[in-house]
Amino acid sequence: MTDRIPLAGVIGSPIAHSRSPVMHMHWLATLGLAGHYIPMDVAQQDLERVLQTLPRMGFVGVNVTVPHKETVLQFADQVTDRAGLIGAANTLTFRAGGGIVADNTDGYGFIENLRRGAPNWDAAAGPAVVVGAGGASRAVVASLIEAGVPEIMVSNRTRIRAERLREDLGRRVRVVDWSQVRNVLGDAGLLVNTTSLGMTGNPPLRLSLDGLRPDAVVTDLVYAPLRTELLQVAEARGCVTVDGLGMLLYQGVPGFERWFGQRPTVDEATRRAVLG
Ligand code: ATR
């Protein structure tokens, strides 16, 4: 049997905007590895068949994006604890002997980006305020709990989603009404925007930061634009700010290492490649 070139990719719909292909191809080229990473537009009704077919075609794994992150769990043979807790997977690995392992590396990407961008941030030092309660928020909150943050205040426009998040992720989560976020900022060592507010084409997250401590860290999952209005206002207060691009880069690291056998480096060249 001839050695096949390992294939990986990303499945979602739409997929054309995804920056994952350029990132993984950049890592393959820099490390001099044989392999390919392919974007695939997959409709919901084709998902199961595609996941059965890809391993036979030489795929070693795929990333999963909107709208399949939750649905793929039902097709997995093994779901990691963190993917189960979050209720979504972004990284699938096809085992050599058959079977799909579903993992979620978004929280890893978030924490890694935060630690690199704000090395002085002390997880145990105080509560975090997380705006939003969607899939991304779940991954962020789970990673903050794992990192040892004593209390995580979650606020969402649709309160019931924040309440469900607390039910799933536990006692360290406190739900804060959408109209009350500004009033809980005073205690926070960390403020995170996990909503799509601030993304190009969307209105900004308009939140008064008057009560925020100047030594608090502010991070935004939005990376287009890189410097969101939230980060600009926080910076003007003297806060350390961390943009969202690094989370995208770091969440890709575990999958790449599993599939292609080497751990890639996230550096300025990776950022430039991904930003195009
Ligand atoms: P993701 O996987 O990126 O988290 P998602 O699960 O669709 O995507 O969640 C999107 C998040 O952005 C939610 O917290 C959503 O709030 P709702 O649950 O109330 O919809 C938030 N969001 C999106 N548009 C918003 C807006 N205009 N104002 C406030 N929150 C918004």
UniProtKB/TrEMBL annotation:
Record-annotated SDH C-terminal domain positions: 244-267
Catalytic residues (positions): 69 (proton acceptor)
Positions of the Quinate/shikimate 5-dehydrogenase/glutamyl-tRNA reductase domain: 128-196
Pfam families: SDH_C, Shikimate_DH, Shikimate_dh_N
The reaction(s) this protein catalyses: shikimate + NADP(+) = 3-dehydroshikimate + NADPH + H(+)
Domain Shikimate dehydrogenase substrate binding N-terminal, residue spans: 10-92
CDD domains, per the entry: NAD_bind_Shikimate_DH (cd01065)
Coiled-coil boundaries: none
Gene3D superfamilies membership: Leucine Dehydrogenase, chain A, domain 1, NAD(P)-binding Rossmann-like Domain
InterPro entries assigned to the protein according to its UniProt record, in alphabetical order: Aminoacid_DH-like_N_sf, Inositol_monophosphatase_CS, NAD(P)-bd_dom_sf, SDH_C, Shikimate_DH, Shikimate_DH-bd_N, Shikimate_DH_fam, Shikm_DH/Glu-tRNA_Rdtase
Family of the protein in this entry: Belongs to the shikimate dehydrogenase family.
Protein name: Shikimate dehydrogenase (NADP(+))
Lineage per the UniProt record: Bacteria, Pseudomonadati, Pseudomonadota, Alphaproteobacteria, Rhodobacterales
